[in-house]
Amino acid sequence: MSLPKDFLWGGATAANQYEGGWNIGRRGKSSDDVITNGTHTEPRCITFVNKSGERVKAPMFVGADYEDVDHFECFDDCLYPNHEATDFYHHYKEDIALMAEMGFKCFRLSIAWSRIFANGGMEGEQPLEEGLKFYDDVFDECLKYGIEPLVTLSHYETPLALTEAWNSWADRRTIDCYVRYCEVVFNRYKNKVKYWLTFNEINCIEMSPWMEGGVLTKDKQTMINMAHYQFVASAKAVKLGHQINPDFKIGCMLAYTLTYPMTCNPKDTLAAWKNTHNNIFYTDVQCRGYYPSYRLKEFEREGITLPIEDGDLEIIKEGTVDFLSFSYYISQVAAYNPEDYEGAGGGNLSLGLKNPYLSASDWGWQIDSTGLRNALNRLYDRYQMPLFVVENGLGAFDKIEEDGSIHDTYRINYLRDHIKAMDAAVNEDGVDLMGYTMWGCVDLVSASTGETAKRYGFVHVDKYDDGTGDLSRRRKDSFYWYKKVIESHGNDLD
């Protein structure tokens, strides 16, 4: 068996982790520009000066109180790896040529919002022609090789000016700014881009509101306000996009973590079910067009009030997405009494109990290719709409041999098993799957730790965690393997 001939094989990146050029073309600062590097054990931090004039480094996943901030600042003694990242800005022709050599049918990338509107699209602000022209050139380069761009409109970076003005997505005014931005890029690229995603991993709002939308808070009510405003903004973008070009396909994007019960104890099964609902609440709203009762009951118990205004629910109902895309890296385990078991494993912004039946990556992410087949079936059964795996891959330490080669058989083995799982879901289970864009097809900066040592790509970039490196590109063994996979439509996996 093989995957369909129109299957969108490719790779995925994000501007904030890959593009660089942070201060070129009048681009405004983004929320990501004030995030330091980190390590396995040291967290990435948001840097600012507080009202007392003190320099503060607030852990990204912990956050801080917005009221404490005087201004955001990049400190001279800190490293901000995404300022240059792996410099797609100056290497886009070379990188897209490498993707074409592999046979890519699709390239997932994101637009840096602050490259289009330095201040986020506040009332009366004009878009930046330099930024618009850059993406024109990128999309033209893709289309020259027959590669379809899949564009994420907001991927872990938000114009910092919106945070400075009103704490970004904690305020309803950001909806209008986002829609202005969408209107500009939809119109500009309506004949170059067909596939769009409104927000990257939108369900990570409650894990890191700063990363998801430039919001500083530790308060759940603020996070839920933020989620509601992004739901409304996404729905408005879908409606607007379809008006501008009815052929647009506009999807949502979920960080999907499959959850198993630790045992067949009914209480463990219930714990796993609750974890699953917390994960898919966001797609329930974006795909079905309404708030699910299980989450409304939770809000009621916790005293959380949705900031709904007249017309919001109608907009959400009318602006459901055309397809559901998701990242899949890991599965996790839940138990009614988690303290009875071994501690949590690592993962893509997710924590769960360790699964004794699975091995793990260098970063502690448990590897579960069968879980991808399970995930595809669960999501397709729930929503009955096309699915797209837009992130999947293995972050690992790569070694350059004396002859310059990189023998990343561990990455090939990982990807082979996950592609087999997709094949089974499509050909044995009947799942409607649009495509697969492997994460970090060219090495980039890790979102969670800020490391470049955590490498995902088919293409190695000479860039290191201390900021050194000449940014030269080098093909890994997996580069040639993936080329063969695409040529055979996923049939030749040897």
TrEMBL record:
<feature type="active site" description="Nucleophile">
    <location>
        <position position="391"/>
    </location>
</feature>
<dbReference type="GO" id="GO:0005829">
    <property type="term" value="C:cytosol"/>
</dbReference>
<dbReference type="GO" id="GO:0016052">
    <property type="term" value="P:carbohydrate catabolic process"/>
</dbReference>
<keyword id="KW-0378">Hydrolase</keyword>
<dbReference type="InterPro" id="IPR001360">
    <property type="entry name" value="Glyco_hydro_1"/>
</dbReference>
<protein>
    <submittedName>
        <fullName>6-phospho-beta-glucosidase</fullName>
    </submittedName>
</protein>
<dbReference type="Pfam" id="PF00232">
    <property type="entry name" value="Glyco_hydro_1"/>
</dbReference>
<dbReference type="InterPro" id="IPR018120">
    <property type="entry name" value="Glyco_hydro_1_AS"/>
</dbReference>
<dbReference type="GO" id="GO:0008422">
    <property type="term" value="F:beta-glucosidase activity"/>
</dbReference>
<dbReference type="InterPro" id="IPR017853">
    <property type="entry name" value="GH"/>
</dbReference>
<comment type="similarity">
    <text>Belongs to the glycosyl hydrolase 1 family.</text>
</comment>
<dbReference type="InterPro" id="IPR033132">
    <property type="entry name" value="GH_1_N_CS"/>
</dbReference>
<keyword id="KW-0326">Glycosidase</keyword>
